[in-house]
Amino acid sequence: MSISSIVRMVLWLVMILGGGILSYYLDSLLFEDIKSNIIFLIISFVVGVFLLRLVLKISRNTGRTLSKYGRKGNISRMETNILATEGIYKFMRHPMHLGLLFFPVSIAFLICSPSFILIISPLEIIFMLIMIKFVEEPDAIKKFGTKYLDYMQKVPWFCFNMECLKELFKPVPKIYNNTIGNKYVS
Question: I need a surface site. Which of 40, 54, 132, 134 has the fewest CB within 10 A?
C-alpha cells in the first residue's frame, strides 16, 4: 500500500472520528433536547442504515470494476495501473468518490447527530470535493498523462442520469484471480 493511500485512510479516520467527537460537543450546545426525541432517533438511524448500505454497495461495485479494468499484473490491492474507462467509469470519473461523499452523512444519521448532519458532514463533503480537484485529479494526470486528459474532456466527475445510476448499482462479480494470461477470471 502506498504512502498516499495510507494518508487518505488517516484523513478518513480523522474526519469521521473528529466529526463524531465535534458533533457530540455541538449537539450538547445546540441540540441538547433532540437526543430525547425517540422519533428523531429512529428515523435518523434508519436513514443512516439505508445510506450506509448505498455507500457500501457503490464502493463494492466500483472497487470490483477497478479491479477488473484498472489492474494488470501483480500490484498492490488498492492500486491501479490501467486507466479504467469501462463499466461505471465510462459514465463518470469518480464513482467511488460519489459513494464516499455520502459516508460522513450516513455516519451522521447513524449516530443521530443533528450537528453532524447539518454542519460537519456538509463541510466534510466540500473538503472531499476539494481533495478530488486538487489531489486525485492531478495524481491521475501524473499517472496516466494525456489519456486521462482526454478522458476528462469526455467524462464528467459525476453523472446522475438513469443509465448511469443503473450501471452504478448493477452487481459486479468479484474477481478472484486478477489475471490469467490476459483474461480476467470471475
Answer: 134
Residue 174 confidence (pLDDT) above 50: yes
Task: With CA atoms as reference, report the closest residue to 69 among 162, 186, 166.
Answer: 186
Nearest 5°: the CA angle 133, 139, 142 is 125
Close Cβ partners of 173 (under 8 Å, ≥ 6 residues apart)? 64, 186
Distances (CA, A) of 145 to 30, 80, 83, 137: 48, 14, 10, 11
Residue 160 has pLDDT above 70, yes or no: yes
Listed in sequence order, the residues at least 6 apart from 131 whose beta carbon sits closer than 8 Å to its beta carbon are 11
* Nine cell digits for residue 9: 485512510
| SS3 state of residue 69 | helix
Contact between 85 and 2 under an 8 Å Cβ cutoff? The reply is: no
Q: What is the pTM of this model?
A: 0.83
Residues 6+ apart with CB under 8 A from 39: none
What tens digit of pLDDT does each residue of 70-85 get? Answer: 888 887 777 888 899 9
Find out whether 166 and 175 touch, Cβ atoms under 8 Å.
no
